[in-house]
Amino acid sequence: MSPQVISPQVVPFHHRETGTWSYLVADPATRAAAIVDPVLDYDARSGRTGLGSAQALLDEAARRELRIDWLLETHAHADHLSAAHALREAIAAGGATPPRIAIGRGIGEVRRVFAPLFGLAETETDAAFDHLFDDDEGFAIGDLQARAIPVPGHTRDSLAYLIGDALFTGDSLFLPDSGTARCDFPGGSAAMLYRSIQTLYRLPDATRVFVCHDYGKPEREPACETTLGEQKRSNIHVRADTGEAEFVALREQRDAGLQMPALILPALQVNLRAGALPEPEANGVRYLKLPLDRF
User: N or C: which end of the chain has fewer CB within 10 A?
Assistant: First the structure.
């Protein structure tokens, strides 16, 4: 008899400015918890950062008396700045054991492409994460059994996290009426994303699915949860009966008309460092770089 799958408590937080969903995921028995894809507030016009959105996650964890063991990134995001480093520092400052910041081992390939563009030294990126998940590596959040599932295609480092009966898909699958993420970044591949999604579609239909992004629709507010069965029945880009060639043609046609994400340049510089901001220069000011004529 297979062991019973524990259903984690999942508390979603929506960052309206970037359409990002972050999650507080807890084991109801041990009160151990993880935070998935936390967002650092960032105003591109002023260059000002803030911890309001990240602090809301900590406040909710404190209210529920949870211990944060993991800060989980689904990939090095191009559309928002990660708050993982700031959260780890805040938790440590409060006297608790700092959680581990984790991402997939594919982050190495993303670094090789983008770190030279921003002049980032290996020492600034290689030690930024506390743990790099191997493909399908298992781990635990209290008594919750979890697995890091590689889902490359949007990016080379993309992961989905299966935690109990809850699947956090990152940018592989969006809600059924929104489809899938773009695949035109360096190292991206529509064919690879299709195969990654087929891996997810082999999980039970009842698996709860929590997406990384949703901006809402004219007919509905932003939402974050569906099921794998509903994805297979009605995802507008890739249902259970959608062929690879059909998906690749659709995805590549859509990607050809997309602009670069508005925050890709600041986001990658921070997210390759696991959310750590650049060190202040001699004048005490931190700076992000804008490479000219490279895109």
Answer: N
* DSSP β-bridge partners for residue 33: 26, 68
Model confidence pTM above 0.85: yes
Local structure of residue 193 (DSSP, 8 states): H
- The model's confidence at residue 5, banded by pLDDT at 50, 70 and 90, is confident
Sheet containing strand 81-82, edge to edge, reads 48-50, 39-43, 81-82
Compute the radius of gyration of the chain from its Cα atoms: 18
How many other C-beta atoms can be found within 10 angstroms of the C-beta atom of residue 221?
A: 8
Residue length, the chain? 295
- By C-alpha distance, which of 114, 199, 109 is closest to 150? 199
* CA dihedral for 84, 90, 93, 98, sign (positive or negative): negative
Reading the block at residue 220, the tokens are: 């509905």
* Segments making up each domain of the chain, as ranges: 9-271
Q: Can you tell me the distance from the alpha carbon of 58 to that of 63, in angstroms, rounded to the nearest whole number?
A: 9
Fold of 9-271: Metallo-beta-lactamase; Chain A (3.60.15)
Sign of the dihedral defined by the CA atoms of residues 252, 253, 256, 260, in that order: negative
Distance of CA 240 to the CA centre of its chain: 24
Q: Is 212 buried (19+), middle (13-18) or exposed (0-12) by CB count in 10 A?
A: buried
Question: What token pair was written down for 44?
Answer: 């591109």
